[in-house]
Amino acid sequence: MSGYCILSGIMDRLRLQCMNRTLILSMFKFLFTLIFCISAGAFAESKHNVVIISSSNSDFQMQTASRIRENLEADGDMAIIVSNDDIVAPEKNVKTLYVAIGEHAIKSLHEYDSNAFVLRINSRKIPDSKYTSAQSDLVTAQPVCRHIQLIKSLNPDWTTIAMLSSIDSLDIAAEFTKCTIRQNLNLNVYAITDERDLLQTLETAVEANKVLLAITDPFIYNSHTVKNILLTAYRHRKPVIGYSDSFVQAGAVAAVYTSPESIGDRASRIISGFFDNNWQFGKNIYSTDSFSISTNPQVATSLDIALPSIESIRESLEQIP
User: Fold this and answer.
1) What secondary structure letter does DSSP report for 277?
2) What is the dihedral of CA 235, 239, 241, 242, to 10 degrees?
3) Beta strands 160-165 and 211-213: pairing type?
4) Are residues 267 and 302 in the same domain?
5) Range of the domain at 209
6) Which of 21, 43, 79, 226 could anchor a disulfide with 69, C-beta 3.0 to 4.6 Å?
7) 239 and 275 together in one domain
8) Where are the beta strands (DSSP E) in the chain?
9) pLDDT score at 91
């Protein structure tokens, strides 16, 4: 009898927990709908209407989206931020510009409305992108030669550079190869076709070269692999050059990159020009017009690397258009 009472009590608590979860989910959906309806009403009264779509909740993408929204609202426009799973038009027959940040958001918007007014923001050009006066790209990656110049400014003796590349980034690797040839440096590209071969190939790469240059390739560099890549390079006492501030904070020696604030400001200026030009973009592809530098003095010291000042690095990188 006591066993039955215990089981009955457990079932009652489980039912209560399920009811609580259902209530919480219902409240969340209600609040989201309420917020969206309020935003939709404000859309009708604003100068221009913008929906910003993020591919993830990463700090980088959310900071970029928030910066764009702040800038647009300061100009009297209305902007809301949604995830790529929640793409909706604010109101029927309301003219709307979409800003899609990242590949997932770009793909989701294309599936939702392939003819939408859109500024696509991504680290590199999306293959087979459609370009019209109402659809354009903002490519946020720094020029490839600026990354090479960063390596030269850190240590001119780092003349052999390793790069890991999957099939998705072979075009980028080819661009880097052209740049290193012009700079009389030796870039060795190691192809990764199976993720199980990553660490073994990495060992070969860092043993045979003086520095590892990381590129934006999610197949190779992601939350599951970055730590092991950095530890392996560190064990061989070889520096890693990253492509973001977070990469440097994780253990890379340095990186040149475009900050979310810079991307947000650049996108806002493009959007403002789009509206001023009667809802038409002036270019198919826009690029960033500034760069940021991060270094990790602690890692550099542990590898016996004497880092130059940020000012001298910047002066060197400004030579690259």
Assistant:
1) T
2) 30
3) parallel
4) no
5) 144-257+291-317
6) 79
7) no
8) 49-54, 78-83, 97-101, 117-122, 135-139, 160-165, 186-191, 211-213, 240-242, 254-257, 285-287, 292-295
9) 59
Both 171 and 251 in one domain: the answer is yes
> Looking at residues 7-24, what average pLDDT do you find?
42
* DSSP strand pairing (186-191 vs 254-257): unpaired
Of 45 and 97, more confident:
97
Strands 254-257 and 292-295, sheet pairing = antiparallel
Residue 14 inside a domain? The answer is: no
Closest to 259 measured CA to CA, from 308, 294, 286, 216: 294
Contact 75, 272 (CB under 8 A): yes
Residue 206, pLDDT above cutoff 90: yes
Q: How confident is the model at residue 22 (pLDDT cuts 50, 70, 90)?
A: very low
**DSSP reduced 3-state for 189:** strand
Asked, for residue 295, whether it belongs to a domain, the answer is: yes
